[in-house]
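We treat protein structure as text, and this decision shapes the records that our systems exchange. Because each token names a local backbone shape, the row as a whole describes the fold. An entry from our holdings is shown next, in its original layout:
>
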Amino acid sequence: MAVTTMTGARPQVGAPLTTPRLPLLRQIALLAWRNLVTISRTPEAILPPVAISVFFLVIYQSTLGGAASFLPGLAGKSYLGFILPLSIISSSLAGAGIAAQNLVRDLSSGYFDKLLLTPVSRAALVLGPILAGAVILGLQASIVITVGLLLGLQPATGLPGLLAVIGLAVLLGTGFAGFTVSAALGSGSAAATQGAGFIFFPLTFLTASFVPLALLSGWLRTAAELNPITYVLEAMRSLLLTGWDGELLLKGVAATLILATAMYALAGFALRTRTRRK
């Protein structure tokens, strides 16, 4: 990363040498751009999560779409609009590992240690890759939604609602990215980081995946009500099926922020642990 000076004054002889820092947002933007360039060179890391999500979307719609009209709460509604958020969330959770994989690559090559010797902010070292991952998550969610539109999706809230769905997907994915980044910083291993990405995958099924939440019972109902993904799903589904619902949207955004707060605290702890080793 280029180092620039903020003043043209020459340092005085004997005075301590100091290197002015770039603003934090610019540091994050530069590191995010570098990560995006790196990601663009390995498109094979982006396509699998999208391909898998699209595959399951087509399968769910083909096998369950006709029978869904008999379920209470779904009669007269599009099952495609009901199941599409599940595919988007699956893509977001799978794609959240991209930021961590870039970090592992920098750790393995020694580039991360070189950055630690510069005046770059420690927060920028984590937030830069996560911001790049957020851009990719938005792209992946857009592709899945485009496939849904080609299959006949008619969102109740139109284009603004689709943009809100993408925003929720990006919020959820970037929050989850804090966990995969902490795994990368803690292990420095690509295999361990990839394995950590699968820990949250079962959460997509411990929720109202295929039927409305009101039809669940027993332990699965309890698990779904405790699962933050449930509230993101409900918010997305309301945007696609019924219209703008402020309460559901607020719950969805709050769930993503609570998850992000917990995961970023974990990432901050992992970063402090790694930097203390140096």
User: Anything to note?
Assistant: The longest helix spans residues 246-277. DSSP finds eleven helices and no strands in the chain. Residues 1-9 have pLDDT under 50 and may be disordered.
